[in-house]
Amino acid sequence: MTLPADQGPRSRGLHGRIVDAIGQRIAHGELPVGGVVSPEQVEADYQVSRSVVREALRTLEVLGMVRPRHKVGTTVQPQAAWALLDPQVIGWRSDGPDGDRQLSELLALREAIEPVAASMAAREAAQDLADRLNDQLQQMREAYDARNRSAFVAADTNFHRTMLEGSANAVLSQLVQTLLATLHARYADRHQLFTSDTPASLHRHERIVEAIAARDPKAAEAAATALVQAARVEVLGPEGAK
After folding, report:
1. Quick one: 160 and 200 in the same domain?
2. 111: domain CATH number?
3. Range(s) of the domain holding residue 25
4. β strands within the chain, DSSP E
5. pLDDT of residue 127
6. Is residue 92 part of a domain?
7. Quick one: which of 192, 190, 130 has its CA closest to 162?
8. 91 lies in some domain
9. Domain count within the chain
10. Is residue 9 in a domain?
């Protein structure tokens, strides 16, 4: 899964690559819960220094994925301890064995948050907000017509970012990266991007723009609810909507 530039690993370079490698192995179950992550083995596997390994393990500890234990070593923690809303963790899980379960959970989060954000955006309605959303929607349409996957993902991501930030709510704005990561979990290669429902989805986006332009919070909330609920059915099928 490819994330936007500001959603990639927080640490770049060699350290970031080691964090990614170990984090993905944990998320995929290759390093089981309770298992010990051997610094020596990591050094040997990835040909890196002990200092790089220690720094990577500290990052994973912050994410709740590992924990140093006296006389035992660095052990893999159960999923309940992980920072499950962190974009890195979402990315690692998205193409793992529980990717579909995570996607269902993240869609539930979107169902709870995006309608509220859309309602607030309609209430606040910065002067150019609807225009910016409409421009991004037009980019989505053009990308769909060209079947340009990367352009569509970028435009859709920007649409939702603009809507969330348009809520003018500081708390919701802090969830932008998490919610954008949910979009990219949906766009993972295991899921088809363009479907027979895509034209209808574009129309649902249009209804959000219209409601915000009209400064109609209730209509914006209803349109955003319809969009996310339809996305659940599109991605997970009728059974996933239950």
Report:
1. yes
2. 1.20.120.530
3. 5-80
4. 36-37, 66-69, 73-76
5. 78
6. no
7. 130
8. no
9. 2
10. yes
Burial class from Cβ neighbours inside 10 Å (0-12, 13-18, 19+) for residue 206 reads middle
Q: Give how far the C-alpha of residue 116 lies from the chain's centroid of Cα atoms, to the nearest Å.
A: 18
Judgement on whether residues 106 and 216 belong to the same structural domain of the protein: yes
CA–CA gap between residue 61 and residue 179 (Å, rounded): 23
SS3 150: helix
213 Cβ partners below 8 Å, 6+ apart? 125, 130, 134
Element (DSSP H or E) covering residue 212: helix 198-213
User: How many other C-beta atoms are found inside a 10 Å radius of the C-beta of residue 53?
Assistant: 23
Q: Which CATH number goes with the domain that contains 50?
A: 1.10.10.10
Cα dist from 213 to 8, 17, 120, 223, whole Å: 33, 43, 12, 13
Distance CA 164, CA 160 (A): 6
- Of the candidates 148, 175, 25, 201, the residue with the CA atom closest to the CA atom of residue 96: 25
For residue 132, give the H/E element and its range.
Answer: helix 129-146
- Tens digits of per-residue pLDDT, 58-104? 999 999 999 999 889 999 999 999 999 999 999 999 888 988 889 88
CA angle 206, 211, 212 (to 5 degrees): 100
